[in-house]
């Protein structure tokens, strides 16, 4: 396969991790096994994206709507997220990866937030790549929170601009999303970075997330390199 040239790499990739449960069911395995495999795959893809020179990677791990799942599944996922951050924060730090959480911070279990805060503090000066972990994240919720921040700052109506709103989002300081990948074949954005992905290219591979290998990642990059991005021109 022809290698994607560096100048055609997306700066910011958002990945909607989808299909862990269906992957497990297709193999006759417990649902939780699919989530575990999904975390393992995420670690592999983070490392590979870093190697490829991606500047920002945002992983959609748990949406504001995912609380509707069973208490048992939600509890298991929260344990997995806490373990993921605890086990890999130092690994990311050694590579120069900065870890950031985007999403609400008032509903995640204390054990998860504790690990996130430790990881963010440890990696805050790193500049190799930014890894956004979206937990209890919803695009509409993020916009509401951004508006509330602006109101609290007492900024008058005539000074409210598109730039100001973007600066008050969870992704403040980061480039807009260039490429959104959603695995499992579902073809919708499901409240994922709606303002940041306004001009993003969309890619929907028909494979479940646990099967999204580095080779599949390369295919996505190759697809992006062949897209013509006009931005309305």
Structural overview:
With 233 residues, the protein is an alpha/beta fold. The chain has a single domain (9-138, 177-225), classed as Undecaprenyl pyrophosphate synthetase. The protein is 43% helix and 15% strand. Helix 1 crosses helix 2, helix 2 (31-52) runs parallel beside helix 3 and helix 3 (71-95) runs parallel beside helix 4 (110-123). The model has no long low-confidence stretch (mean pLDDT 96).
Strand order of the largest sheet: 3-4-2-1-5-6
CATH level 3 topology: Undecaprenyl pyrophosphate synthetase
* H/E topology pattern: EHHEHEHEHHEEH
Helix/strand/pairing class, anyone? alpha/beta
Give the N-terminus to C-terminus distance in angstroms.
31 Å
Features:
7 helices, six-stranded parallel beta sheet, alpha/beta, 6 strands, Undecaprenyl pyrophosphate synthetase, 233 residues
Summed up, what is this model?
By secondary structure, this protein is of the alpha/beta class. Helix content is 43%, strand content 15%.
Question: How does the SSE layout of this entry go?
Answer:
Elements: E1 12-16, H1 20-26, H2 31-52, E2 56-63, H3 71-95, E3 97-102, H4 110-123, E4 129-137, H5 139-152, H6 162-167, E5 179-182, E6 201-203, H7 214-225
Parallel strand pairs: 1-2, 1-5, 2-4, 3-4, 5-6
